[in-house]
Amino acid sequence: MKKQSKYRLKCYPKNLQDALEHLLEEVYLAQHIMYVEYNGIFVVAQPGDTIESLFLQYERKMEEAIEKHMRSWRYAKKQHIYYKRYQFLQKMIRDEKIQIKKGMEREYQEYKNINFDPLSFATVEYADRLARALQVYMREGSQLEEVIEELIQVCDLDFIAEYMADFAISSLSYFWEYGDVLAGWLETPSET
Hints:
By secondary structure, this protein is mainly α. The chain is built from eight helices and three strands. The chain has helices spanning about 15-30, 50-70, 75-95, 105-115, 120-140, 145-155, 160-175, 180-185; strands at about 5-10, 35-40, 40-45. The chain has a three-stranded mixed β-sheet with strand order 1-2-3. It is elongated.
């Protein structure tokens, strides 16, 4: 019977540092090669390894995984969708300015100024694109209810999380000139 060459360490760490420290402790005690999986990346440790060498191994493997993902068809499809959306939106809303409710311009500017971290900024930018796209369609005679569900997807260039989109739409219902119409749409039960 062949002896096992590596042993898997099962642990539930809070972060990468905890996982690697736990792995090193177990390798030291067992004096045997062990590995741990963290975020889909396998890190192999041998007796005598250091935390720094394991971090480097993790970083290298993570970079390889990212490169592999970027060569995948899913990534290419996502990039294609992004490019098509970007082209469409650039043509459609290039000259359009968001219409803010009268008297709320200052408060809207303050809202934009305090949301400068990357996630909040992406949410504010998404809301701005969505409002401008809706304005174009509404000016051309479409009803908000007819086009909003499609534009919610089309205007999402950053592939933001659903809760961020909800926050963006909620902020538009407060600041945007047509926010009352949007709020009415939000209160209408969906047919799904």
